[in-house]
Amino acid sequence: MLVTGAGGSAAANFVQSLRAAPEPFYIVGTDARREHLELADVDVRYLLAPSEDASYLDELNAVIEAEEVDVVHPQPDPEVLRVAAAARDVRARTFLPAAETIAVCQDKAAAAERLAAAGVPVPAVGQRDVHDAAADILSRHPKAWVRAKRGAGARASLPVTTVEQAVAWARYWVETRGLDYDDLMVGEFLPGREFAFQSLWRRGELVTSQARERLEYLYGHLTPSGQTSTPSVAKTVRRDDVNEVAAAAVRAVDRDANGVFCVDLKEDGDGGPRVTEINAGRFFTTSNFLTQAGANMPYTYVRLAYGDDVNGLPPFNAVEEGLYWVRMVDMGYKLVREGQWRSKRLAG
């Protein structure tokens, strides 16, 4: 098994899920950063050129041949798209969505437009430049959300209440952080709870899935937006509306969906879930949460890549609700069931 981006936490948790599988894996880890790769729990490590380099595919195939790799799982978004686009030339199995699907999903504005056209609830999105888009959104909603169209971790995100704030925030990212104005979008700010829906698909059919609610964010208190999309505390939930909207979103972007699709949703003012983005072809960072809870989706994903029979899994609600995942940098993580917290408070 070859896992790209192995020096990152998302790939590390994917690898941990494979280590927890009922069969052993020989895992090859690749990354463009040698420092980060030292942390990976893999059997052998290789440096690769960045995915945008012309040599990337040749280097990837060289590792595949040297290590006799059966399956490749690209985890970082740029590598997911590069490998999917060149899937026929990759000398190992992959289990990825179509490259066109990935490209649409990696452009949050394009994905929102596709979903809205299909009737999937999404936040209102301004379709013009930052100034006019913010003016449009704020004329209909009390708060707007400025964000980058591409990237993870709530990149370049900020809730704003005036057009001037939106324009100043955009100018900062353009003048100091290397973005163009076209890289930014403005949408309706959704005030409710946030959910994450992780799912596996095969030939357009949902294999299994689970939703969780994000309760706190890693270093969210240090960011202007208050969130990072990477939770420090999350819990499993069972909500039919979240499940149905998320599944409809995947079908809207790809009727023949294959592989993993991770959907972010947030409640509007009435408590209804709306889709804010879809991560196609790669797992959420906390894939090991659900593995520890009893649904090892990375392992199922690999079995699907081999064409194995995985019938009989629950399409929704793969694990019980009310399971908490608590994590912090340098402190590891822990699964806690509702009502089993060990802390107590003295009266007074």
Account of the 3D structure:
The protein is 32% helix and 24% strand. The chain is of the alpha+beta class and 348 residues long. The chain has 3 domains: 2-94, Rossmann fold (3-Layer(aba) Sandwich), CATH 3.40.50.20; 124-188, Dna Ligase, domain 1 (2-Layer Sandwich), CATH 3.30.1490; 194-337, D-amino Acid Aminotransferase, Chain A, domain 1. The strands form 3 sheets. The chain has a 7-stranded antiparallel beta sheet with strand order 12-11-8-9-10-13-14, sandwiched between helices. Strands 3-2-1-4 form a 4-stranded parallel beta sheet. Helix 2 links the parallel strand 2 (28-31) and strand 3 (44-47). The chain is globular, with a radius of gyration of 20 Å. 48% of the residues are buried. The model has no long low-confidence stretch (mean pLDDT 93).
Question: For the record, what CATH class of the largest domain applies?
Answer: Alpha Beta
SSE-based structural type: alpha+beta
Order of helices and strands: EHEHEHEHHHHEEHEEEEHEEHHEE
What CATH architecture of the largest domain do you see?
2-Layer Sandwich
